[in-house]
Each structure stands twice: as C-alpha cells, then as structure tokens.
Specification:
By secondary structure, this protein is an alpha/beta fold. Helices cover 28% and strands 18% of the residues. It is built from 13 helices and 18 strands. It has helices spanning 8-17, 40-43, 46-52, 77-93, 104-111, 144-149, 174-185, 207-215, 231-239, 304-314, 332-340, 343-349, 399-408, and strands at 26-29, 33-37, 64-68, 96-99, 118-121, 135-138, 152-155, 159-165, 194-198, 224-227, 258-263, 270-272, 280-282, 293-296, 324-327, 353-354, 374-377, 393-396. The strands form 5 sheets. Strands 4-3-2-5-6 form a 5-stranded parallel beta sheet, with helices on both faces. The longest helix is centred in the first third of the chain and has 17 residues, at 77-93. The termini are far apart.
Length: 418
C-alpha cells in the first residue's frame, strides 16, 4: 500500500518534524514565531513565570514578537505601567516589539510571516495568519511554554476542506462569506481541525478577504486555518518586502475529515444577531431595525478594501445626523495608504470618525456603546458588553451593510443603495 496524500497542514507538520507526520500525532515543534501582546492578565505574569522556568537568555529571541496595541495609547497611569513592564520584559530577553505600528496581529502579517510557518499566540483571532498559509496555534495562558522552552508539543489536526466557487455579488463582502460558512459548517463543524481553503473560485477572493475569513475560523470550532497560495499571495508578500516563492498545496489524494463547497455567488448580505456569535441571519430578517453606531476596524477588518466598500456607498454623501461611524485602520501603514490615496479625506468628509490604529475599539474601551444602543460592527464578536454596555446590542455585519445603515439610521440591504 502506497503512502497516502497529505493536506497542507500535514505537509507543514512533516516539514517541521523532518519526517512524515500523521493526523492526530503529537509532535515536538519549535515554532517559527511566538507572539503575544500586553494585556495585563498575561504580561504582568510573564517575568515571574520565566524566572520559574529558569530562563535567563533565550537561544532565539528573534523568534518572539510582543505587541503593544491594547490599552494603547495608555489612558491611565496604570495602563502606562503595563507598557513599562512590557518594555522591560522585551529588553531583558531581547525580543522584538511592535509599538506605534497598529494592531499587532495585522502588523505581524505585514512584517514577519511566510507560507509554511508554524506560529503560536495566546489569541485565537491571529488565525488570520492562515491567509498567508502560516498556521497559527492559539494557546491562551499556555503561551508561556513556547516563550520559556522555545518548543512545545502540538497535535497535527485533521483538515476540513473548503472549496470556493464563483465570485461574490455586488454588495456582498468577505464578512458575509464568513457568516455563510458558519451557517453551512456550524459552530462546532470544524472542531479542533485545520480549515484548508482553495477551489476554482478562490482567486476571486482578495488577500483582504482571506484575512477576514481566516480571522474568524475559531467560531467554526477550528484550531487553525491555511490557504492555498496564488498570485494574490505573492503580490502581498512583495508589497511588504518579503522574498518567498515556496508554495504549499494539498496532494490530489489528500484525505479530509470533511469537505464543503461554498458557492460565492449564492451568498446574500448577512448578519450575526445578538447575543451569540453563531446566530446567523440574512440581513432581510432585520431590515428597518434602528441603529445608532457603526464600527469598521479590528484585526478582522480595518483594511483598505473595507474602507473602499464603505466609500462605494458613502462617497459624496454624509452620515445621518446622530449616527456614529467609527473607522479604525488596522495598521499605521494602511492608515498612511488611506491618506496617500485620498480615501482618508473622503471618509472624513462623509462624517466618519477616523481613529488611530488600536485594539481598544474592538473591546469597548474606546467609543463604547451606551445602554439600549444598537451597533453594526465588522469587529470580532457580538457578545453583550463587548463594545460597551451589556444592555447594548451588537450585530456583526459587512462594511457594505454598516455604510448603508449610516445613511438611513437603520439596518438596510446595501444592494439597495449601491
């Protein structure tokens, strides 16, 4: 009997192990990159934990990146104290740091990633790295293990294959694709698996689309995600000065746990309704619902195409009086690009509130919602209290749907105003 074909994640694990690796096999992995950011619950503990492990000088400090993007810029002396602790930690161990560049998950995708990498982070939303075929494994508090030991055992996950066909219709965006996938696959349909994306329609999805979709695979129960690579991938890497031409693709006879076919041209505008992140609806179910605020920006969005979609609807018009449209570019580089291409000025003229790249808007520290307000957001999650008051309601939506609501003050099908 010959060898069975491999999926992309099986090839990546086998390459790191130096031998063939099978699904569900535990392998000692030396991550190509380990990432964290300065949330108090983590950063305050790291120095003492490293001391307990007896770590004085890591062998490969260049493989660790720490981000300053929560509580940033510091709004209180206590928050600034966390930044001091973070800087002292980074200097002591010689790690790389991201400060003043934006949301670190996205900055890492601009500066540090290549296809075939295995990356660890405490944040599951960093699965957006999969758009570049870099497999991210979220560890929560367990991130201290690869920080201290520079290695850990990881299980090679089974693969759920998603084949995309066709192309998106006008007024439909990557966020709608993610919600459609959630409806088709289910919130536990890819439990502890790697979601592998490709298909004859995959080329119609841009890199910005892929980042958004990969960012949300945790809501399918998935452990990580990887994408097939194409000219979109290589063009993105070249844009950010990364020289890389090795690609990873599945074998024709690769064995999958599950396979799903997604017809992009069938997807309508969608919403995730409160209070749960699996409460998927077509936008038609909530047409006319009053809305007071919109948020475009997080590591799930805040990219050039998100703001292009907003302007497709809003350019030459103005946000309805009393409506708050908060826009947060995900990195300084993208913010600079918005300035240089004139989009920033257009958004400001339309009444958008343009802000500094930071994670603080995604968890309600900045621009929070008041009681009984309703917000459309293309950020991470629609759980009560995520963007402010627990008595506020959050609908996850595409930039198109958010822009449409800014004109009408209510949930509106974006196809009707394009």
């Amino acid at each position: 009997m010959g060898e069975m074909g491999k999926t992309i994640i099986e090839k990546i694990f086998s390459e790191h192990a130096g031998r063939d690796v099978a699904v569900n096999e535990d392998i000692l992995i030396y991550p190509d990159l380990t990432c964290a950011y300065e949330l108090p619950a983590y950063m305050e503990r790291f120095p003492a934990q490293m001391k307990e492990f007896g770590v004085e000088k890591p062998k490969h400090p260049e493989r660790v990146v720490i981000g300053l993007d929560h509580c940033y810029p510091g709004g209180t002396p206590e928050e600034q104290e966390i930044h001091k602790i973070t800087w002292a930690f980074v200097k002591k161990f010689g790690y790389q740091i991201i400060e003043g560049e934006g949301i670190s998950n996205k900055v890492i995708a601009e500066r540090f990633l290549k296809p075939g990498m295995i990356v660890t982070h405490h944040d599951g939303h960093a699965c957006l790295f999969g758009a570049l075929c870099a497999a991210l494994f979220p560890l929560s508090a367990g991130i201290i293990e690869p920080l201290a030991m520079e290695s850990l055992y990881l299980t090679c996950p089974p693969t759920v294959r998603v084949n995309f066909h066709g192309a998106l219709s006008k007024g439909v965006a990557a966020r709608d694709v993610q919600m459609w996938m959630l409806q088709q696959i289910g919130p536990s349909g890819a439990m502890n698996a790697c979601v592998e994306m490709g298909g004859d329609g995959f080329a119609s999805l841009t890199m910005d689309d892929r980042f958004t979709i990969c960012n949300q695979v945790m809501f399918l129960g998935a452990k990580t995600a990887v994408c097939e690579q194409d000219e979109h991938t290589w063009s993105y890497l070249r844009k950010y000065g990364v020289q890389w031409d090795k690609s990873y693709s599945p074998d024709a006879d690769a064995v999958y746990w599950k396979t799903f076919d997604i017809n992009l041209d069938e997807i309508p505008p969608m919403l995730l309704a409160p209070p749960k992140p699996a409460n998927v609806h077509r936008i038609d179910d909530f047409i006319g619902r009053p809305v007071q605020a919109g948020l475009v920006g997080s590591c799930a969005s805040g990219r050039i195409e998100d703001f292009k979609q907003v302007l497709e609807i809003l350019d030459g018009k103005h946000v309805k009086e009393g409506f708050r449209l908060v826009c947060v570019p995900s990195t300084i580089r993208l913010q600079q690009e918005l300035v240089e291409n004139g989009m920033m000025a257009k958004l400001i003229r339309c009444g958008a509130r343009m802000h500094y790249p930071s994670c603080d808007f995604c968890y309600g520290k900045m621009a929070p919602l008041a009681t009984e307000e309703t917000c459309l957001a293309d950020a991470q999650i629609n759980a009560p209290g995520r963007l402010g008051s627990k008595q506020a309601e959050i609908f996850t939506a595409s930039p198109y749907a958010i822009a449409a609501a800014t004109l009408t003050g209510e949930i509106t099908d974006p196809r009707g105003v394009l």
